[in-house]
Every structure is written in C-alpha cells, then in structure tokens.
C-alpha cells in the first residue's frame, strides 16, 4: 500500500521509503493540518538536499536546525520547539537503535512491546504511539501479535479515527468528519 498522508506525491513517496521521515511526520502532527505535518520531512530533506538521517539531525547545530525549519514556508507553526523535538527524537534513535528507526518494530515481540518502544520515543505519548502503531499495522504490514489491541481504538478494522486510516483523499475526509463528530460528542452530554 502506498502512503498518502501528505497528499503530495513526492512527500508521500519519502514517507513510504523512509521510516525516519514517517516518525518525524507523526511527531509534527499536532496543532497543524495532517498534510502539513507529513509534508514536513520532505520539506526538511529538500532544504538539506538529501534524505533525512537520524545521525545528521541529532548532530545539527540546534539554532541552525531551528532556522532551517523556520524558513518560509515553515515546517510547523512552532518551528523552534519542533526542531528541538525532532533533534531529541533523532538523538534517541541514534543512541538506542543505531539511527535506524525500523529497528523499533523489526524485532518487537508483540504489540505491547512495540507500543512500549514507541511510547519511549521523545515526543510520543500514549495516543501518538497507539496511532503510529495502528499506522504500522494497517498500512505497512507491521503486525506483531496483539498489535490491534495495543493500538486501542486506533487499531480497529474499518475505523476512521486517525492518520492510520488515511489511504486516499476520500478516507481523509472521513477521518476529519469522525474527528469533528468526536469533538461535538462531549458537548451533547
């Protein structure tokens, strides 16, 4: 299956071939539209002139990396704080996984173990980790035993709750509608 989270061919192609780009896109996916967040890794790689590597990002001078993200158009509405988070994520990947994010899920024994590894990533709380786990399972075929249960509601087959369920423009509309409905639900009570 082809990743279509950025809804831009070149950005989605990068997400599909680079586990680091996918992790960074997920990290950026807060307080901005999903497409903007998942285009972020492509924008960064274009500004660097090559694909992202955890080692390069981790060793980048922090102010220079923040400036790179702040160039117009900015990678995120909060480029300085997100640059720091991306660098923290990259440093963690270098320290714990030799800079190779696919090692996070390559040998995870089961869904619970994978969720625990994802939750240990800087910038990944439980919800973000569960959504990413669901994305891995639903779109990349990373399906250790118990992955759906570990992903919680985001792992449900046929759901339209998160980026894990976005496979084209139509599913993006359905996910947005479900999110709007979820926001309205508490008001009705």
UniProtKB/TrEMBL annotation:
SUPFAM superfamilies in the record: DNA-glycosylase
Protein's name in the database: Fe-S cluster assembly protein HesB
Superkingdom of the organism of origin: Bacteria
All copies of domain HhH-GPD, residue ranges: 24-138
Organism: Nonomuraea cypriaca
GO molecular function terms attached to this record: catalytic activity
InterPro entries, A to Z: DNA_glycosylase, HhH-GPD_base_excis, HhH-GPD_domain
GO biological process: base-excision repair
Gene3D superfamilies the UniProt entry points to: Hypothetical protein, domain 2
NCBIfam families, A to Z: HhH-GPD-type base excision DNA repair protein
Lineage, top ranks: Bacteria, Bacillati, Actinomycetota, Actinomycetes, Streptosporangiales
């Amino acid at each position: 299956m082809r990743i279509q989270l950025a809804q831009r061919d070149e950005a989605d192609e990068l997400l599909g071939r680079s586990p680091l780009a996918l992790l960074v896109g997920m990290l950026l996916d807060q307080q901005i539209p999903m497409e903007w967040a998942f285009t972020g890794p492509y924008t960064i790689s274009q500004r660097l002139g090559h694909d992202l590597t955890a080692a390069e990002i981790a060793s980048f001078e922090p102010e220079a990396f923040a400036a790179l993200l702040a160039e117009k158009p900015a990678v995120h509405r909060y480029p300085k704080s997100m640059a720091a988070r991306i660098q923290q994520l990259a440093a963690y990947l270098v320290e714990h996984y030799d800079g190779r994010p696919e090692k996070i899920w390559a040998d995870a024994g089961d869904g619970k173990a994978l969720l625990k590894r994802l939750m240990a990533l800087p910038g990944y709380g439980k919800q973000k980790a569960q959504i990413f786990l669901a994305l891995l399972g639903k779109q990349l075929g990373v399906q250790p035993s118990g992955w759906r249960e570990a992903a919680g509601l985001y792992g449900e087959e046929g759901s339209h709750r998160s980026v894990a369920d976005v496979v084209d423009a139509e599913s993006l509309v359905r996910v947005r509608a479900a999110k709007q409905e979820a926001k309205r639900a508490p008001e009705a009570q």
